Amino acid sequence: MRPPRTDRGRLLLILALATAVTVFTATVPLLRDWFDLRVYYGTVNTWIHDGGRVYDYRVPGTPYGFTYPPFAAVAMLPMALVGLHTAIAAALLLNLTALTVAARVLTGPGWRRYGWYGVALAACALALFEPLRDTFSFGQVNLLLLALVLTDCLLLSTGRGRWAGIGIGLAAAIKLTPALFIGLLLVAGRRRAAAVATGVAVGATAFAALVAPDASRFYWTRALWDTNRVGRLDYVSNQSLQGVLARLGVESRPVWAVLVVLVLCGWAWRSRRAVAAGDWQAAFALTGLTACLVSPITWVHHLVWLLPSFAVLIRAGHPRVAGALYAVLCTSVVWLWFDDASGVDGFLGSNLYTWITLGLLVWLPTGHFPDGRRPAAHSTSATVAPPSTAAPAMRAASDQPGPSSTTAAAATGATTSGPGRGRAGARSASSEPTGSTRPAAANPQSSSSRASS
Question: What domain range is 165 assigned to?
C-alpha cells in the first residue's frame, strides 16, 4: 500500500489513525485513573492542610504512599493550592510539554523535513508506546525528568556545556535514578558539569531539609532503604535485573551486585567511546538504559528512558530494528505472565522488556550523525591549533576546481509509526498498576487499588 501523496489523503490517513489509536487506548489498556498523581496530591494536601507527615500518607484503601526524596514533595507544593481535577489537567499539560521538549531534542532540526504529516504520525506512534501510556495515565513524573536530562544533552552536544548539569541535578534531587547521569559526566571528563549537577542536587536536597526536616530525616535514614514501600520485586512490571532475579527466586544480594557491576563496567566503556566520538545523544541513551537495568525497581512506565535509544537507532540507519523493538514495547506482552512467570517461556516472556533494554545497551550504535560528520564540539577539551605556514598553500589548493564528494545522510531521530498490538491476555493484565504487594486477584485490572511510584 502506497502512502498518500496529497495533503487531503494524508489528512484522511491521520484522522483514521488517530481514531484507531483513541479507540485502542480507551478500550484495550485500561487507564490507571491518575493513581500516582493521587498519591502526590494526597501527600501534599495532608502535609500542608492537615499537619500530617509526608511519608505517613497512604491512599485510602491501599498501602501505598509517597516514595520520592523530600525535594520532590517540596516541588509539588503548588498542588496544595488547587483541586484534584486542576492538578490532573496541569499534569497532562506538563507531560505533553516535556514530551515535546524530549522529542525536539532527540530529532534535532531534521524534524522540519517531515512537516505536520510526520509529526502527526509520530504522535500516533507515541500514543501506543506502553511506558508513555502509563506515564500519562498514572500522572507520573518520568517525562519531566527525561526532558530535564535531555536539555543537558542538548547543551553538551551543541558546545554550550557551560550551562550543563542543572537539569541533571534537579532530576536527581526529584528522583534518585537520574543521578547516574552525573556518573556519565565524570566518565566523559566533564568535571565542571558534574560539579554543577552535584551542587544543584545537593542544594535542592538541603533546601528540602530546611523546609521539611522531619521528612528528610525519615527518608534518608529509613524510607530510602525500605523497598517494601514501593512494591514486590518479583512483580512482572519490574523490568530491572533485580526483577529478573526475583522472578527466578534468586534472593542473593551479591549475585545482583555482581550483575550491576558488570553492567556498569560495560556502560562506562561504551559511553566513553560514544563521547569520544562526539555522540552525546548515544551516551545519554546508554545511560538511560543502564539506569533502568541497575535500579532495584524499574516499573514499565520508567522505560520512557528507552526513547533516546530509538532515536539513535533511526539516526544510525536502523529504522526497521527500531520499529520492531518499539512495536514490542507497545504490546503489553509481559503481562501475559502476570500470574505465572515460571518455565522457559516465563523466563523469556515476562522479562522481555529487560532483554530489549540489555540488548540495546550492548548493541546500540554510536558515532553516527545525520550529515556523516562529527559535531564541531565533540571533544571534552577543545583547543585551538596554532597558525600553520602551510595554510595559505592549502587554502589556495582548495580554491581550485575539483571533483565534488557526496556524503550519505543518515535518517534523523524520528519516532517509528508502526507499533504492534497486544494479545488478549495482555489486554487484561496490562491495566494492573505497578507495585502490587498483594497476591494476584481474579481480575488484575482494577487500577484504583494499586500504586506505582
Answer: 7-226+234-374+412-429
The grid cell for 184 is 556519565
Closest CA to 230 of 180, 177, 178: 177
Inform me whether the pLDDT recorded for 161 exceeds 60. Answer: yes
- Identify the residue whose cell numbers are 532475579: 245
11 within some domain:
yes
The SS3 of residue 398 is: helix
Query: And the C-alpha cell for 182?
Result: 552525573
Q: Which pLDDT belongs to residue 422?
A: 39
Which CA distances in Å does 276 have to 273, 363, 374?
A: 5, 17, 10
* 16 domain-assigned: yes
CB 183 within 8 A of CB 198: no
Nearest to 141 by CA among 233, 293, 34, 61: 34
The answer to which of 96-110, 113-127, 301-315, 404-418 has the lowest mean pLDDT is 404-418
- Give the amino acid at 9: G
Mean pLDDT of 144-157: 95
